[in-house]
Amino acid sequence: MTVREYAATPIAASRRGSRIPARSPRRHTRGAKLSARLRRRDALRLLLERLAAGARGDSLPPGHVPSTFLFAFDASRIVGRVSIRHALNDFLLRIGGHVGYVVVPDCRRRGYATEMLRLSVRLAHDQLGINRVLVTCDHDNVASIRTIEKNGGVLENIVRAADLDTPKRRYWIDARLTSPTAGPS
Ligand SMILES: CC(C)(COP(=O)(O)OP(=O)(O)OC[C@H]1O[C@@H](n2cnc3c(N)ncnc32)[C@H](O)[C@@H]1OP(=O)(O)O)[C@@H](O)C(=O)NCCC(=O)NCCS
Fold this sequence. Notes:
There is one protein chain. This protein has helices at 25-56, 90-96, 112-128, 142-150, and strands spanning 2-4, 67-74, 77-85, 99-103, 132-138, 154-159, 168-174. It is α+β, with helices and mostly antiparallel strands. The longest helix has 32 residues, at 25-56. The protein contains 4 helices and 7 strands. The two termini are 29 Å apart. The radius of gyration is 21 Å and the shape is elongated. It has a 4-stranded antiparallel beta sheet, sandwiched between helices. It has a domain at 79-177: Gcn5-related N-acetyltransferase (GNAT) (Aminopeptidase, 3-Layer(aba) Sandwich). The site of coenzyme A has 18 residues, from strand 4, helix 3 and helix 4.
């Protein structure tokens, strides 16, 4: 499994040389399908541009920090996604943490989240220079608690507050321990 950016592949656009006659209903259906694919591709390109801008820190909403959004692939299938925030603001330090992740529902309980978090922590260290990674989860999210603890998360505290529906568990992972490029601390 890998975590990486999504690279859109170009649509084979040329219809030159088609042997379907211009007025044929089959040709019309093919044209409509191609238009729909191109519209979906445009929407995807826009999303990817926004994600790339978010990583650069361009045009961020007030109070947001730059973040890297990556997809988890098993072979060619997307099985989840992670978001790695490049810094902690007050909100992220208290509640949100550095890394957020979701696994596609029918891919859960196969170890993907554990591996996604491991790779994200390594990436946070190697590419963003983050030595201690904060990961948070709801107090009752057993799967996420296990995912974090299996990655060496050390519980700092549990935040209970009127603005939270569920208490938040705050864990720190020492990224220097998980990275092969880490030097002596
Ligand atoms: C939390 C989530 C990411 C876990 O993904 P996953 O790929 O199923 O996790 P893994 O397969 O790596 O399992 C990690 C551990 O959690 C356990 N686990 C997974 N789902 C579980 C469940 N529903 N109940 C109890 N334990 C569960 C696994 O058994 C494993 O522990 P083990 O090795 O001791 O057996 C996934 O359930 C999800 O996307 N949930 C919705 C979004 C979310 O909560 N994200 C986290 C926000 S902090």
